[in-house]
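WARN no homologs supplied; continuing
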Amino acid sequence: MKTELKKKFSIVFHEECSHVFFAPGRINLIGEHTDYNGGFVFPCAITFGTYGAIRLRQDRKLRFFSENFASLDIIESHLDHLEYRKEDDWANYCKGVLLTLIKKGYPIPQGFDLYIYGNIPHGSGLSSSASLEVLVGTMCQALFHLDISMKDIALLAQQAENEYIGVNCGIMDQFIIAMGKENHAIALNTQTLDYTYTPIDLKDHVILIMNTCKERKLSDSKYNERRNECEQALKSLQKKAPIQQLCDLTVEKFDQISYVIEDPILLKRAKHAVYENERVKKAMIALQQDDLITFGQYMNQSHLSLKEDYEVTGIELDTLVEATWQQEGVLGARMTGAGFGGCAIALVKKDQVEQIQQAILTQYLDRIGYPCQFYVAAIGMGAGELA
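OK structure emitted
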């Protein structure tokens, strides 16, 4: 891949690149929409991701090219003019990270030419935008010798997404992409950022990623609306409990005081956050005890909560997951990511993957009218330079 990217860089920019970097995508095993509610998440980095070939310039000009959006050709910008421009499309994610670095006092003394290639399906919900953001931060750390940790790169990339792009996301995606470890998930407390690596041993099972092929874009979805609903519910609950976040509550305490939330919609949103946080804690214990059956059951419960209480699934994700539940050799399945399209994941028997895929595809095509896609996930490393 590195050699191929270098060749393609030379064709586009008529110069040789100096470095090639990679940042992964991610899946979240369980713990959805808890990250901005102060709860636990349980994600892992995958071996799909975003590659960047780069060459520093002697001026302050920036030139961006993406193989995935080749029709946009080279997008030009400048370190002194990093304001958001709609016509800059995907390159705004790069510019947002650069501007955030500069505002925080990190020196970016010269521009660069950047060639991007990503093999994360666009709009799949596997965090292609966070992958690009962390990639740019990691490249700047290395090439400009910035005194910034990978954890702080994750936080900075999240800030760029929140303030520059306008998506009020939590920290999970950027954190796992920056901090991922091969064959491990991260048990992350999103309120304190305390984390532990948990080995993933699925025995004779694999993680099957199922792409609805319904493209989603968080800035155009109801993502920010859900976050606002949680904040409204929190204000009501704070009348009865000294909490900072919804996930400060146990399930028992929530059930005792939830009557103060008068709006039934807000009640459902809060219930999902609190109950999902409890599921994550129990699911992590099950996995540590090699109890894949129980872990799979928590996955199923998570999807139902996301469907009924949080209402972020939709017909495509529900069709995928419900078809998966019907198959022999499946321990559990759920949507992963923010929802509104994107992907689901399932724990399936390794020797039954092909027949399970075919059965799901048949049902999905019959109901939705176009095919879904499948990938078997390998759990990989976080962002860094390719050796």
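The mean pLDDT is 95.
OK
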